[in-house]
Sequence to fold (334 residues):
Amino acid sequence: MSEVTSVKSIKTAVVQFQHQASNKAYNLLIMEKYIEQAAAQGVKILAFPEMCITGYWHVPGLSAEEVNALAEPVETSPSLALIRALAAKNQMLIGAGLIERAADGRIYNTYVACMPDGSYHAHRKLHAFEHPAFSCGDGFTVFDTPWGVKVGILICWDNNLVENVRATTLLGADILLAPHQTGGTHSRSPHGMKPIPLELWEQRAERKEEITAAFKGESGRGWILRWLPSRAHDNGLFILFSNGVGADADEVRTGNAMILDPYGRIISETWVAADAMVSAELDLTLIPLSSGRRWIYGRRPELYSILTERQGYERDAITARFSEEATGPASRKV
Fold:
């Protein structure tokens, strides 16, 4: 990696786009377009959504053999070869998601940060539920950049467990890449997300006010704002939230691409029902005295051993995500 130099600000951008299922050529074409736009704007860190290269919600309907055929080894991935070349050409960090086939044959939902010097850092989703063939990652991903800041990666549901973001912060992350495919999903929680009708997306041009309200509502932006700003605020880091948008199999992604500062404030966002990119200059001087970063110094680790102890009610990712079994005090160890 090139010599690290400290900077006070850095230009970043996040993309929301509607991928096509298993159509890598199309998805890469869209990504290349946004990379060119970002380069023209002087962006140094660009984040695309989770599994944007391969497609996402059609995957649960594939056979294990079809999933394996869609997967690529990160080291020799033809798809990532293009992204890595563009990262080097534009001296940019570009994050992209795909299905990885590891050397041991295991399959992962993986997000790869392609670096300006041609290297890369790959994060395997810690809580993968998309297909029984998927394995879960077992480690956090934090790395240096040429701009004097450390970047971490957590994929979608990884961000919903507060321990993951705190651990990533303790490992030194200043900026968190948070690629998602979310919004408009059917949550069994009574006040969680609910589906957005596919016909509303299909009629988005003539029903612009309705779909905008849906994307900004409780199954889109409203749900995201219940928890994402707290991850930034409580840890004193910037979050780059990228997401899919539009019809994705039988669900509608709500986009809501946004960038948050270490106080949990949104500094750039969109709720447009279309492919889009939003950018922001990150003021890195905000980090050291942010509330969350200062509070970390008051931690008492000796009190937190319970965080690493199994309580007896833990579930695998697929069961936790889809089980209809009720949870609550009666099911917890007391």
